[in-house]
Amino acid sequence: MITEKTLFAQHVEKGLSASSKFLSSMYFYDKKGEGLFRQIMNLDEYYLTNCELEILMFQGHEIAHLLSDEHLEIIELGAGDGIKTKELLRHFPKDSTVYRPIDISEQAIIDISKKMSDWIPNLKVEGICGDYFKMLDNLKSNNKKVILFLGSNLGNMNDEQAKGFIQQLNLVMQKGDQLLLGLDLIKPKNIVLPAYNDSKGITSEFNLNLLDRINKELGGDFDRTQFEHVAIYNENEGIAKSYIKSKIDQTVSILENDTSFHFKKGELIHTEISRKYDLDIIRNIIDNTSLHLDHQFTDHKQYFTNLILTKH
Ligand code: AVI
């Protein structure tokens, strides 16, 4: 059987032996990484959280009205901390609405289920642990479904991957089901870049934690002090990119698969993209699906958007 550890080791070997080195941001989220991401979400420089919170706090009532149905299942992909979601959920009738957070982490499901039940007593909460699409497929029923995919999580995929992801969602949705998609909008560099290179250095810790993870889980000997976090944002393209840069010429060994990798001074490992959107980009992504963009909500600064897409 292929274990998580083997998959991680294979990914690291592939990424670090490529001519342009890369590692997937998917591996940011071990326990420490999750904690660091929560800290990032609370930074003022990471404007995404407050902008989406503002939309859901002040327009949540209207959004809920557009999503409502007699019997409704609200399914959230990636459980998160629930603070934003609660602002939406409080507007739905408790007796005919079920909230189902889906996450691969069992602990995340336990935490969010407890919190949401405390915040909104009487709301039916039924968390599900597992793979998004498998779980969504199992959930096919006569009830209308609303899928929440908030926080611009789609932005960590390139446009081809995002298309594939939305197409898979489209396949498991039934006519009348809706998707509430939270997306960060394209905006100037002086606003975006500090979100990915904050002054307290938490994003740097978050990115470099990947090296600690390789050391801990795969027996790597990365010297953290010889690498640094780099973030760039290309305004025309609308994509923030994160890298880990080698400060010196060095060789790193990884015991797990008995490999070693050479890094030149200044060489980059690409670790993450955070795509920013406009309506043309999103229309291109939902092209070839039967999802229609029905409503758009934005915060007062127009930094972030929540879109309602309906399956026709
Ligand atoms: C989870 N995701 C939407 C975050 C983002 O903005 O791309 C992850 C993140 N990376 C650095 N800071 C936050």
TrEMBL record:
Transmembrane portions of the chain: none
GO biological process: methylation
Pfam families given in the database record: Methyltransf_33
SUPFAM superfamilies hit by this protein: S-adenosyl-L-methionine-dependent methyltransferases (SSF53335)
Occurrences of domain Histidine-specific methyltransferase SAM-dependent (ranges): 8-309
Protein name according to UniProt: Dimethylhistidine N-methyltransferase
Keyword presence, Secreted: no
InterPro entries, A to Z: EgtD (IPR035094), EgtD_Methyltrsf_superfamily (IPR051128), MeTrfase_dom (IPR019257), MeTrfase_EgtD-like (IPR017804), SAM-dependent_MTases_sf (IPR029063)
Keyword annotations of the record: Methyltransferase, Transferase
Gene Ontology MF annotations: methyltransferase activity
Organism, as annotated: Flammeovirga pacifica
